[in-house]
Amino acid sequence: MPDVTRTLRLLGPLVGDGVAQLRAQWRGHALTLIGLVWGAAAVVLLLSIGAGFNQFLDMGVAKTGDRYVMIWGEYTTTESGGTRPGRPIRLDVDDLARAKAGTPSAARVGAEIQRYGIAVETPRKTRSGVVAAVTPEIGTIQAHVVERGRFIDADDERLARHVAVIGASLAPLFFGDEDPLGRVVQLDGVPFEVVGVLAEKGFQLMTNYDVHDNMVFVPLSAGRALFGVGRHLERLYLDPRRLEDEPAVRAEVMAALRPAHHVDAADAEAIRSMSVPEVMEPTRRIGFGLQVMLGFIGTVTLMMSAVGVANLMIALVQERRMELAMRRACGARRGDLVLQLLVETVVVVLAGGMFGIALGLAGVGLLGLLPLPAELPSPSVSPSVLVTTFFVLTSIGLAAGIVPARLASQVDPAAAMRVT
Prior knowledge:
The protein is of the alpha+beta class. Helices cover 54% and strands 16% of the residues. The chain has two domains: 197 residues, no CATH class; 195 residues, no CATH class.
C-alpha cells in the first residue's frame, strides 16, 4: 500500500515532466506525432462508420416495428386430416379472432392485406400505388406516427368505413399545398375520405411492396371488399408483451391456428412465422463484424505509429543516460525510472491522439454535412467510440513505453557518470 501511494504521488510530477519534455523536443517528435494524429483520426473515423452502420440498422427496423411476429399461410408438406400434401393454407378473419383469443403473451394482434397496382386518383394526380388494408392495431405494431388527423380506429373497422390514411410523400403529390384531411381519394374508382397523414419515415429496412411513406392505409373490412378477397387475409401481426415473450407468442398462435386448418403439428411449412429479431440477428452480426474489422484496421494504423514512438523513446533514453543516472544516484528506484518513461511515452501518444481524435471528429462532422443518399448510413460518434479510442491510445502508449522503460531501469549510475 505505501508503494501504491508513493506511485500515485509521483504521477502528477511525472506527467508535468512528460509535457515539458514534449514541449522542449517537439521538433524531434513532429513526425511521430503526425503518425499518431493520423492513426487516432483513422480509429475515430472507422469506428464511427461502423457505429453509424449499426445505428442505421436499428433506425431502419424501428421505423416498421422492431419486435413483432408475422404469420402467413403456405402449403402443407405432410398428410393431415385425410388430405394429401400440397394443400394451400389461406388465413381468414376467423384466424384473426383465434389469434387474439389464443395468444395471451401478445400485447396486440393485427392483420393486413397489401395490394400493389391500385389506381390512386385525385383531381390533381393519378398514379399506381400500394394500398394496405389493416386493422387499427397495425398502427402501433408497425410504429406509424400520425402527423395530421388520426389513424384507422375500431369504429372504422367495425363499420367498414371508406376512410384512408396516406403516407407522408402522398400528401403533397396528390393535394399539393392544400390540406388533405377531409378530401377524397379514389382507389380503383372507389371513394375514400382522407382522415390522416402519417409522419415521414424515410428509408425503411423492412418493407413488402413499398415504403410506408408511399402507401395508402384503409380499414381491413373496407379493403377486403375493395380487393375482392372475401374473408381471406394475407398476414397476421403479433406484438409480444415483452421481447423475451416472442417464442411463447409463436407457440401460442400456432396452437390456435393449426387445428382450425387441419395442419399437423410436425408440419413447419404449412403456417409460417417470422419475427423481426430473428430476421435482424444475422444483419446485426454483420454490422458488429464490420465495426470490429474497421476498428482493427484503425488500430493497426495506430500501432504502426506506436513503433515510431518506441524507437524515439529508446533514442531519448540513450541521450538522457546521464540524467537517468543522476536520478538513480539521488535515490530514485528502478521502478521510478520505469514509471517515468512509461508516463512520458503515454503523454506523447495521448498528445498526438487528442489531436487525432479532434481531426476524426471533424471528419465525421464533414461527412455528416454531405448530401448522402438515405440508403447510405452516416458515421455516428458515440461515447463508446471515444472511450474505445482513448483505451486504444493508452494501451499503445504503455506498450510502446515498455522497452524504453526497461532500458532506463538498467542504467548503471557509476558507468553512466564515469568520465573517460
